[in-house]
Amino acid sequence: MEEKKRTVTRVEDGEKVKKTVKKAEEVAETAEAEVKNVKKVETLSKAEEKSKAITLRIISAILWVFAIGFEVLAILCLFKSLRLPGLSQMWWMIIFIVLDLACCIVAALLWKKASHLDPFKKTNNKVGFFILTQLGVIMAAICFIPLIILVLTSKDKLDKKSKIIVTIVAIVALLIAGLIGADFNPISAEEKAQAEESITQDVYWTAFGHKYHTYEDCHTIANSSTVYNGSVTAAIDNGCSELCYYCAKRAEKEENLKLEGLNIEEGVEAAGE
Q: Is residue 262 within 8 Å of residue 241, measured between CB atoms?
């Protein structure tokens, strides 16, 4: 067997070290870019915010009307006023409950988005502010509780097994719609205006967070692969309602910046501070 020829190329030590260092630098730069990808988000004008909010609220209202319609269809199936072919009474009721839930979820998400684009006023109207910001929960109750009560109180409309299944499905749907519909971090028109007045520099936030940050190197977003960057208006429009507690304390300490009146995340002072 013929022996394979092997070519050996000599590499000087200096050249080898140089290439190794260069390669390491390239890897480090690539890794840093992969760790944090900062995306710029444009700020909408006030007119654009209001117009978009109105559109979203109209769509939400239409979807809630559809949700109530599906609830009514489920009730009609319960009392056998509506007879549909192909499936049993129980399965048609479950289908209408699922469609009811889908409409409630989308409507609530759009309503919450609108509430950040064009927030409601809170001053002298706390009850109204609560009702409007938590309308997703209220509508979830309207779209499921009457059906649940009728299923539980009706006699001879469903067999025992079907009654239990439909009740469980409806209760689970109510809980899901209620949790998704709840706005746990609402922001008022006054709080948004105060944030826009107090914070003039760009802020940072993540896709699923509800806080915005005034420092890109804040430790709470250090491990986020994608960070969004823009004005505080853009942050609030995208669902962020609170200023990060740690960024607020850092700004007060390093920049002597007073942030009274802002909606700031609740935090606990570290021992010794």
A: no
